[in-house]
Amino acid sequence: MQIVIAEDSVLLRAGLTGLLADAGHDVVAAVGDADALIEVVERHRPDLCVTDVRMPPTHTDDGLRAARQIRERWPEVGILVLSQYVEERYATELLATDTTGLGYLLKDRIADVADFVAAVDRVGSGGTALDPEVVSQLLARSRRRDPLERLSPREREVLGLMAEGRTNTAIARQLVVSDGAVEKHISNIFTKLDLPPTDGDHRRVLAVLRWLEGLEP
């Protein structure tokens, strides 16, 4: 497998090169910044690109942005991103696209040579390799999301009218839809806001309270 490496730490770059060469892979280029990464991928069209997230020139998300550009221009090139720790926003951005031939590992995982080489082989062959810690934190993040984000634009519109004190009939008239359509939207709102039917709670009021909480700065 032909591989290019992008890592600004000279020692780690050399270590990765030697490790992958010992595993039988052909490291065709090893560079220290995001701009050089784009150049060598264009020149060699490797099977896999192994890149750090934070690299020159800005030491922020340069490696990730280069990886996304590579995915757009050469989708056949596998991408294995390495990071010092889980950067939720960057991981989410990367994984929002097709995960074929895509991996995101913490650098600590490199210490387990067998696991790392297996991840390289898997991603280079079109598979996926996600660090368990990455998966755990992204799942935790999804649970922290504002439940109002689950609503469709129409459902948010219906909930807004509910918050104004409109009846189902009034909402239907405002949106020029049937009463049945409004009832379906409201049912979906209750489900998405985790408001199951109970004897003691008024779900319509609770839904409106969620809406008002979401409007707070």
In short:
The modification 4-aspartylphosphate is found at residue 52. This is Response regulator. With 217 residues, this protein is α/β, with parallel strands linked by helices.
Structural class: alpha/beta
Estimate what percentage of residues fall within beta strands. Answer: 5-15%
Main sheet characteristics:
6 strands, parallel
How many DSSP E strands?
6
Order of helices and strands: EHEHEHEHEHEHHHHH
Number of helices: 10
Q: Radius of gyration in whole Å, from Cα?
A: 24 Å
User: Which outline best applies?
Assistant: elongated
Estimate the helix proportion, in percent: 40-55%
Give the name of the CATH superfamily of the largest domain. Answer: Response regulator
**Order of strands across the biggest sheet?**
2-1-3-4-5-6
N-end to C-end Cα span: 52 Å
Number of domains: 2
Which CATH C-level class of the largest domain is it? Alpha Beta
Low-pLDDT windows of residues? none
Pfam families: GerE, Response_reg
Domain HTH luxR-type: 144-215
Modified residues (4-aspartylphosphate): 52
Domain Response regulatory: 2-122
What can you see in these coordinates?
This protein is α/β, with parallel strands linked by helices. The protein folds into two domains: 2-144, 3-Layer(aba) Sandwich (Rossmann fold), CATH 3.40.50.2300; 147-215, Winged helix-like DNA-binding domain superfamily/Winged helix DNA-binding domain (Arc Repressor Mutant, subunit A, Orthogonal Bundle), CATH 1.10.10. The protein has ten helices and six strands, in the order βαβαβαβαβαβααααα. Helix 5 (113-124) links the parallel strand 5 and strand 6 (128-130). Helix 8 (168-175) crosses helix 9 (179-192). The mean pLDDT is 84.
